[in-house]
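User: Please predict the structure of the protein below. I'd like the answer in structure-token form so I can feed it into my own downstream comparison script.

Assistant: Understood. Taking the following sequence of 294 residues as input:
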Amino acid sequence: MMIEKTLITKDVIINYAEVPSPGPALILLHGIPGRWQGFLPIMPDLAFRYHLYALDLRGQGKSGRTAGEYHSRLYGKDILSFLTHEFEEPVILFGMSAGGLVALDVAAQAPGRVKAVIVGDSPIDFVQLKTWMKSEEFMELFSAFRDLAGSEKPLLQISNELAEIKVNIPGELEPIRYADQPGMDALELRQFAKTLSMLDPGVLDYHAEGRADEFLAGFDLDEMLPNITCPVLLVQGNPNLGGMMTDESVDFALAELPDATHVLIERAGHDLLMNTWKERSLLRVIFTFLDTLE
């Protein structure tokens, strides 16, 4: 049975969903913007073998708002507080997109608390990420998202406004309608509208204003990756379909991480097929990797 709970730390209130199980603890971390419900397509399968915790990062979903405090390193600080309060044994972290960067940060800072990390198509190529975040297309997109964040408009109206947004998708040459992204049907637009309606607009200030260097200040993968002693699985979406994990970044991470495995899901983009609920390939990768830990 899924239970939604809150943990009050000295810095922020963390909202999370828990699915109790006798198995090892598996923590799910979403991207930006997001909320824990983004993992719903894979949670029932994972819950058969793992005790699941799916968190809302600060400023998102039902977690607390911390005005002006949405720097990249603060998300890792929150997860460390969560682990300290809730667990005695090491846990498994699975982070999607920006959530994967948070997971790597936590594993580097507190290796004794993390048993393994799964990185779901995270943009670990910071040269590419900063270039993209500073581009006009990126800033226009996230500015539009910020304008809709926290909106009390009906979800249908937010969905319709999202459908009118045009954006360059990585790997595409021409602008396309946001609604035309692979898997972006009316229901997914409605779900994303719900996510934005529950978002503190300040979460997107760095993104909407092209402040990539400021957002990532102190987040140094060259120093971080060699300090991660646990096994790491890099799950890459196809860059030609919008995947954000580049081949060059995979080569770099494999060279720096002491224990890393890489898998490309050829037919998946950045969402690794979760948005379309065709996630069997992702589940195969996750279960196969986690089985090697037991």
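That's the full token string. The longest strand covers residues 13-19.
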